[in-house]
Amino acid sequence: NRNPMNSYLFLTHLKASMEDVQQTYIMIKPDGVQRGLVGEIISRFEHKGFTLKGLKLFQCPTELAEEHYRDLKSKSFFPKLVKYITSGPVVCMAWEGPGIVAAARKLIGATNPLQAEPGTIRGDLAIQVGRNVVHGSDSQENGQREVALWFKDGELCEWTQEITPWLRE
Ligand code: ADP
């Protein structure tokens, strides 16, 4: 193919696949949606330079909330947590980027918002563990698992972000 743009796109794609490009599941919880923080939270990830691969507003059924938080089943707060997550629509997102799993956790901040650093989403926007506005996968494995759990085939978008050369050399 003689189009130099195609070779360029091919090479950047190849390079991205050789880098530590990961996927993570980010979810704006019902309090974040109710409080009108959707744009603010999405902006944090957009401005950082990550790539949005999937996005939807969704009323989560009880069974899905239980499956998502299955590792916390034995905790005393589990029933309250499931009630919280199903109490209104959530915004489900799949984001991609180099090192994104750990980086997203840093952007989000500590589980308890009063312990979260200023500048993080929870540090800036929340005060209680039971209303901490956002979720982010805690490992690469859970990133894969949660993206597959919350999105059906065909709901993710395969696209080339044209500004990538301005974000990564
Ligand atoms: P994180 O969301 O930071 O990964 P966890 O996986 O430990 O944190 O917990 C999942 C979610 O469960 C938290 O984000 C919070 O909404 C809720 N949660 C955790 N601990 C408590 C608690 N002690 N009381 C009430 N809710 C909690």
Structural account:
The protein has 169 residues and is an alpha+beta fold. The chain has a single domain, classed as Nucleoside diphosphate kinase-like domain (Alpha-Beta Plaits, 2-Layer Sandwich). Helices cover 42% and strands 17% of the residues. It has helices spanning 4-18, 30-34, 38-48, 62-68, 78-85, 100-108, 121-125, 140-150, and strands spanning 21-28, 51-58, 90-98, 134-136. Bound molecules: adenosine-5'-diphosphate. Adenosine-5'-diphosphate (ADP) is lined by residues 72, 77, 81, 111, 129-130, 132, 135, 138. Its EC number is 2.7.4.6.
Task: List the secondary-structure elements in sequence, H or E.
Answer: HEHHEHHEHHEH
Number of helices: 8
Share of helix among residues?
A: 40-55%
Strand content: 15-25%
Bound molecules: adenosine-5'-diphosphate
User: In terms of structural class, how would the helical and strand content be classed?
Assistant: alpha+beta
Q: Main sheet, how many strands, which sense, barrel?
A: 4 strands, antiparallel
Radius of gyration, taken over Cα atoms and rounded to an integer in Å = 17 Å
Q: What's the end-to-end separation, in Å?
A: 24 Å
* Overall mean pLDDT: 94
Topology, number of strands: 4
Strand order of the largest sheet: 2-3-1-4
Number of domains: 1
- CATH fold-level name: Alpha-Beta Plaits
